[in-house]
């Protein structure tokens, strides 16, 4: 039976949208596959890892029949990528084999039954619904996602806290050593609802969301969150657990502060980072009247020293940081300048932006 007949890109595009969460090797082999369902001209593509599920569709079907199968996602994507851009592609299903044909190229792939594919059951009802432009959600997540923990035993840190409260939508991420917070205002009003969105879901959304005014709809239940945008439906389980009280972490009332060129500071830190090791990413910062001195050393007694002029008249402070945490924030911003606020050598630093009062980035000091 012929499932699909279309141009290569018409088929590759929806497959790439859903294949990002698929792992090549899985304890359950069918989860390395993608579910393809055909109903006349409409063909849907679905992938899941049992925690996250992505579905999209395209009008690429051939014939009026209904059919469904599953096939290795990465393998099919790799085949299509290797074909010429302008190629026409047909997918045929026969005797539990999916045949991919384009010109004189022909591939025969093993399939597994669509009936055995474990889809995520959608929540019966959602408590909160949010609608906003895709670019707004992408920017909100982009301000904080890099501070999420990765494979931390405190599982509630392996994600992003999303808070709907009043007209505001806030996002918070922390790995216990640094914290990023950002808030945007929407056109709607909500009752307060806090949920933890898994790390994998956030990273996948950053890949899929457009930098456009096209809408994204967010539906939230007690155990699940659903994002619907641009013909894509992404359903994700939520992380259970209580997120730390971030309001207690964000410093208030620091008197020592200065504004510095983001790009100038970023380049100085990148140069200083060359002399750090893979295991120890510490740099030393000495803030004094009119100057910021950055230095780093390694076990070979090699040293890097950078000195930047700053408009500063506060206390003299000698403090250490993980340079990666500073480079993460500077690399994820487009602002010309950043504001750095300091307490003393044992207090966390607070980094803010001159034109965005709703953003906070906190970095704990480290012993050098």
Written account of the structure:
The chain is elongated and about 75 Å long. The strands form three sheets. The chain has a twelve-stranded antiparallel beta sheet. A six-stranded antiparallel beta sheet has the order 10-11-22-21-20-15. Strands 18-17-16-19 form a four-stranded antiparallel beta sheet. The chain has helices at residues 8-19, 73-82, 134-142, 199-208, 262-273, 323-331; strands at 2-7, 33-39, 42-48, 52-58, 66-72, 88-94, 97-102, 105-112, 128-133, 159-174, 178-198, 215-220, 224-229, 232-237, 256-261, 282-288, 291-297, 303-309, 317-322, 337-342, 349-353, 356-363. The protein starts with a strand and ends in a 5-residue tail after the last strand. By secondary structure, it is α+β, with helices and mostly antiparallel strands. Helix content is 17%, strand content 46%. A hairpin with a 2-residue loop joins strand 2 (33-39) and strand 3 (42-48).
Write the layout of secondary structure elements.
Blueprint: E1 2-7, H1 8-19, E2 33-39, E3 42-48, E4 52-58, E5 66-72, H2 73-82, E6 88-94, E7 97-102, E8 105-112, E9 128-133, H3 134-142, E10 159-174, E11 178-198, H4 199-208, E12 215-220, E13 224-229, E14 232-237, E15 256-261, H5 262-273, E16 282-288, E17 291-297, E18 303-309, E19 317-322, H6 323-331, E20 337-342, E21 349-353, E22 356-363
Antiparallel strand pairs: 1-6, 2-3, 2-5, 3-4, 4-14, 5-8, 6-7, 7-8, 9-12, 10-11, 11-22, 12-13, 13-14, 15-20, 16-17, 16-19, 17-18, 20-21, 21-22
Helix pairs in contact: 1-2, 5-6
